[in-house]
Structure formats: structure tokens, C-alpha cells
Amino acid sequence: MPFTPVLRAEWIKIRTLRSLVGSLAAILLATAAFSALAAADSDDTDPLYSVFFGISFGQIAAIAFGTTAVSSEFHGGALRLTLAAVPDRWRWFAAKVTAIALPVLAVGLLTGLVTLIVGKTVLGASGPTWTEGLRGAVGCGLHLTLMALFAAGLAAVLRSGVATLSVLIPFLLIVSFVIGDLSAGIADYLPDRAGQVALHSTWGGSLGPWTGLAVTALWTAAALLAGAWRIHRRDA
Q1: CA geometry: angle at 181 spanning 140 and 200, to 5°?
Q2: SS3 state at 205
Q3: Does 134 score more than 60 pLDDT?
Q4: 170-195, pLDDT tens digit by residue?
Q5: Closest alpha carbon to 115 in 91, 143, 96, 94
Q6: C-alpha angle 107/113/117, rounded to 5°?
Q7: How far, in Å, CA of 166 to CA of 134, rounded?
């Protein structure tokens, strides 16, 4: 089966599953709401990050989206039916990844723009410049997309949404902060922290805005390759 109809089928799965639509909405709502609260209580030390502070919560929704989109295939023999229609597992997984990436990127960029406008409205003259803010908005969209795909790859490896979220959520909420407190140099290269460098006005680490996103992209690529290999090697 050609790639386009496979992609169309995967998109239909995503838009008809209400939990996935809810996760997309939560990306925007969580990021914008928590960013507005942070901007209102900002100390002006890093106005750009104050504007995009809520991405720490929005990325959890992005991870839930990527995880659920893949893990739903491992329930009730859904993957067997899918592979009966699309025997080429590499093509199917590429279509699944594309169907995940496109809506998250669209929502992520919209989230970045909305969050920027809300943040600048709250901060007023003390907010970031539009040039800096637009860089942050693009970085916001890319980071959310990469985290959703990172979760999708890990879900393909673990073949369980519960297991994937049990690994990633504590990692984001606890482990990443603990490592950051103990060794900032190492923490800079963790997938969640590296991608968020683009959301800071200044950064004292070794990564820049785009190199930080590149590090997160490498983590994501590794997870997706591992997931594709797992699906290719393991029986449905």
C-alpha cells in the first residue's frame, strides 16, 4: 500500500480518538495558562522563559499524546489488523510517526504564538522583544513535537502506555530536576532540558537555542529508531 493512504488511515485513527484530541487541546491550555501565571509573578531575570514557563506542563500533554497514539495499537489486537492491511512495518511506523508529528507541530506553533502574545500582554514593556519571542515560539513548537515523538518511540519499545508514562512523567517531574541540581552540565543534555534552551533569553551552559533542540532531536531519533526496530522484530 502506498504511503499516502497509510498516512490518511493513521490520521483518521488520531482524530477519532477523543483522548488524543483532548491531549492536543491540553498542550495549548496548559502551556498558555501556566505561562500566564508565571509571567504575572515574574522577577524579570529571564523574561523569555517567564513567557514560556508553562511548556514544562505542556510537554506532559505532548508526551501523553505521543504515547497514547502508539500504545493504542497494542490493545485488542489492533496492531495485527493494521499490519494485515499494511504488511510493510517500516512504512506503517513512518506513517504513524508523521501522523503524530504534524498535528503536534501545528498545535505547538500555535501554542508558542498564543503563549507569546499572552506573556507579552502580561509583562508589558519588561517582556522579551518580538524577535526573541518569535524564536521562543518556534522553539516551543519544535520542542513539543520532539517530546511527543520521543514518547512515541519509547512507547513502541515498551509496547505499553502505562509503562512509558511511568518512566517519562517521573523523569520529567523529579529526576531531571535532581540531576540539574547536582550537575547542571550533564542535565543540559537531557532531552527535556536541552530543547528548552531556546526558551531562555540567556543561558550559561554549553548549548545554544538550536544546538539544544538538535540534542533533543538526537534523543528523539534514537527512540524512534529503537521503536521501529522493536516493531520490525517483534510479533504483533
Answers
A1: 25
A2: coil
A3: yes
A4: 888 776 766 655 556 777 888 988 99
A5: 143
A6: 140
A7: 33
State phi, psi for 41 to the nearest 5 degrees: -110, 25
Q: What is the model's pTM?
A: 0.93
Burial of 178 (0-12, 13-18, 19+ CB in 10 A): exposed
In the numeric block, which cell numbers belong to residue 215? 540534542
Contact 168, 182 (CB under 8 A): no
**CA dist 142 to 89, 104, 209, 214, Å?**
26, 9, 11, 10
Helix (H, G, I), strand (E, B) or coil at 3: helix
The one-letter amino acid code at 106 reads: A
Residue closest to 119 by CA, chosen among 60, 41, 61 = 41
d(CA 169, CA 211): 24
